[in-house]
Design goal:
about 20% strand; homodimer; 7-stranded parallel beta sheet; about 45% helix; about 220 residues; globular; 7 strands; Rossmann fold
């Protein structure tokens, strides 16, 4: 298909921009995370709860990617983060260039952790590195346990997957093992953190992972 | 962003191929439906249940789009449909050209209803008409009621939305009206069919809609 060739050119330009973002955040000693998932997996709710837990001690910025609205940026600003909204105007993923522009709108010297909330999409964002330190997937248990096998690129390129909405497992008649087995079959190395952004279950391990990442960054 | 220009050329080629598919299915008096949704909304489960209800009386074919696996094609073939699998090998949507190739692998003279199950993605498939008679969205209630506002292109280009997993509404503490209001705010004309592919609730209205479509096609 013609699209593959076109996409290759776009990807090459993206890599240079990603490297520039990476260096810029390293210089500012920021720990940064690209959060990716299907629409409706609970990324923004996880961010809201994370902000509630961490904003008292840390300065957090969010680059918010969305196809059209500014709804999610408003939600995280209400919880004490500084947010920059990127509207992709129909495009299906963020790229490193638009994220670089967003970084210019933030005071990086005063930021500890920076989240990029990518557009809800299990396919296109996988190919576009943004220059963050880590890439994290959110998988809602209501999406079904076949998703890792169906969208393997995403799961292979992330270091952590938050398995969200675990409070619904009994209602769905499913076990956590259905998901962990499916995830490990495409990426045996990935760290799996089962959470419920609604009840708070499991969220402490996620906060600790973020704090460990920030400490490691500062010790570089 | 460079991607917009590139995408425009791809879209123009797609329109010709879609028109050819449309004419071909019209000539064969097939009623055809492009089914689109987020990953994990329940498209394949809806198709399985639909096949159970209709295969005794109608010949049904499914063109199954997936990024890598053939898992969904196997599921619908087990229920009595003829299925052709398209693996997009990483691409984020089907286009009319690959669907046209799949039509060549099917005996169209012996088909009443043809479903295209698009790649799970709320953004990219919206721009690519495949040449089907109708485009249908599936929205799982677990995805949240903000999805129509966040992905309006998809909801504006469909004539029907199946609001699926309504058996989970009480567990989520949500009402059907949360979804119908959100959907109508971006597309006041769209037909909304609340269903549970798990319990079968509401599915009769969907089967009737399909049968009405087939009757209309045969009367053309």
């Amino acid at each position: 298909m013609i699209k593959v060739t076109l996409m290759k050119k776009v990807l090459e330009g993206n890599e240079d921009a990603a490297e520039a973002n990476r260096q810029r955040m390293k210089d500012a000693r920021i720990f940064s995370v690209d959060m990716m998932s299907s629409p409706g997996s609970g990324k923004t709710t996880i961010l809201e709860r994370t902000l509630d837990a961490l904003v008292a001690d840390l300065n957090i910025a969010v680059v918010q990617g969305d196809v059209y609205t500014t709804r999610d940026a408003e939600r995280v600003e209400a919880r004490g983060a500084r947010a920059v909204q990127i509207n992709t105007e129909g495009a299906c993923h963020l790229d490193a260039t638009v994220v670089g522009e967003a970084l210019g709108d933030l005071d990086l010297s005063d930021t500890d952790i920076l989240f990029v909330e990518n557009v809800g999409n299990l396919i296109c964002p996988a190919g576009f590195e943004l220059g963050t330190d880590q890439r994290v997937m959110v998988l809602g248990v209501t999406e079904g346990s076949d998703k890792p096998e169906k969208y393997p690129a995403m799961f292979r390129r992330c270091s952590v997957v938050l398995v969200n909405k675990i409070d619904l497992l009994p209602v769905l008649g499913m076990d956590l093992a259905d998901f962990t087995d499916a995830i490990r079959s495409v990426n045996p190395e990935i760290e799996i953190l089962p959470v419920s952004a609604l009840t708070g279950e499991g969220m402490e391990a996620w906060y600790q992972w973020l704090k460990d990442g920030l400490i490691a960054r500062r010790e570089e």
